[in-house]
Each structure stands twice: as C-alpha cells, then as structure tokens.
Amino acid sequence: MEETSLSAGEFCWVDVAVPDPTATHTFFSELFGWGRRVRPTEEADAYSIMTLNGRHVTGICEVEESETSRWMAYLLVDDLSQAADRAKSLGGEILKAGLEIPTFGLMTVVMDPTGAIFSLWESLRGEKAASGEPGTVCWVELVTNDVKKASEFYTELCGWECGETRFGDLDYHLFTRDGKDVAGMMALDDAANDKSISNWVVYYSVAGCSAAAERCVAAGGQVVRGPFPVEGLGDCAILSDPSGGVFGILQRH
Fold first, then answer.
1. Rounded to an integer, what distance in angstroms lies between the CA atom of residue 8 and that of residue 192?
2. Tens of pLDDT along 74-114?
3. For the stretch 46-77, what's the b/e string if a residue is b when 16 or more beta carbons lie within 10 angstroms of its beta carbon?
4. Are the CB atoms for 170 and 186 separated by under 8 Å?
5. Any residues with CB less than 8 A from the CB of 13 and at least 6 apart, and which?
C-alpha cells in the first residue's frame, strides 16, 4: 500500500462514535475487509483502530445507546493551541480542548460557524495517507447550510483557497492548498444525504461501487442514495452502517 506524508492543512484521520461498536466492527470488516486492533491504553475498550493490510484506517468508539452515530474528521495542524485560538476568533466554538492521546497526538474538537463538527490534530509522530487503496479514505466533504460562511472560516483557518466547479448538474466547491485538492463542499439543499445540519462526510475508495453497495446491505447497512454517476469523477453512493452513521463510497473512473 503506497503512502504519502501529510502536512498541516490536510485531513489526517477519521473515526466514528457508535452505540454498538462490536456490530460496527463486524459491518466494516465485511464491507471493506478491515481488521481490528485495540488501542493499548487503560481505557482500551473505548477505542478500536480498524486496519487494512496492517495500516490504521479508521477509529471506532462508543456513544450512549440514546445518541446517534457521529463521524469525525481530523485536521492536521502544526500548533494546536494557536489553531484553536484562530478557530475561535473566526467564529468557531471549542467543544473539547487539548485532549491528549498518548503516543499519538493532541486534539481539540471544534464546531464551525455553520454547525459542522471536526477536530484539530497536532501529531506527535507525523501522519501519512494511503493513495487510493480500496477501503481507505479518499475524500472528505463538507455539507453545509451556509457555503459563504463556511468558505470564509476554513480559508482563513487553514490557508485554503476555495473555488467553484460543477460535476454534471451539481454545483460544487473545492478547497485547495498549495494547488492540492484537500476537501470538497456543497450546499445542504444539494447534498447527497438527508442530514438536516452541517456536517463533514467521509468517503472511502472502492473497486466497484455497485458491489460495495450490495455488500453494505448484506452486512446490515442501508443505501441512502445511489449508486449514481458523477460526471468527470466516478460512481458514488451514500451508505449508512447498522447504527445509522452516514458515509460515502467512491469508485473513480
């Protein structure tokens, strides 16, 4: 599996908090062929790391049964304290500050001015990403109720540029940094899922979109939308795991 080093201003990790981690482990293992290891800490059962060919790909942790599943994307920064102060000055809200994950890094959970939640991450050992391997994260996308406000926040916070483009009939926005695509953005009304609040959506690369959607259903998940073609990009589908957590898959052409 090829890997590339990541730098500040790029997303470096994702996880999902679910009411039933064991069922979610099984679901994603059947969908993507993931393995599982438990983080070696005193609270090891609280966080599982899903692996693919020995590489860490996604975290799974537990929330109360009364809560809904929550996906989290982690934005790599050089200095956590400075980035958190910057986010707050730009209208973000700090939800949890300066959490230490031993041997891995430091994190602060932020809600952007449109209501989308993400984490700032200062790594203690450097971060890498897989290059297009099926079953690994291939894209993150902000679905927002205020494109203008979100664009202003993230370009100022991350040093991103935001440009408009179209995929077929879909109006879309691309966040770039130093000429590299780092994330996408679309208006909530045009979103490929039915979430009613702003949120970050995680996409995984697949070798076959239709086959992956069928595996999702067979494993106890649901197809929220698709599969559907996106002109100039590939085939996509929006899925949910058995606990209702929504994510995407993408087969690039």
1. 28
2. 999 999 999 999 999 999 999 999 898 888 899 999 999 99
3. ebbbbebeebebbbbbbbeeeeebebbbbbbb
4. yes
5. 59, 73, 74, 121, 127
Model-wide pTM > 0.70: yes
Describe the crossing of helices 147-158 and 80-89 by its angle, rounded to 10 degrees.
150
pLDDT digit string, tens, across residues 23-60: 999 999 999 999 988 765 554 456 889 999 888 999 99
The amino acid at residue 149 is K
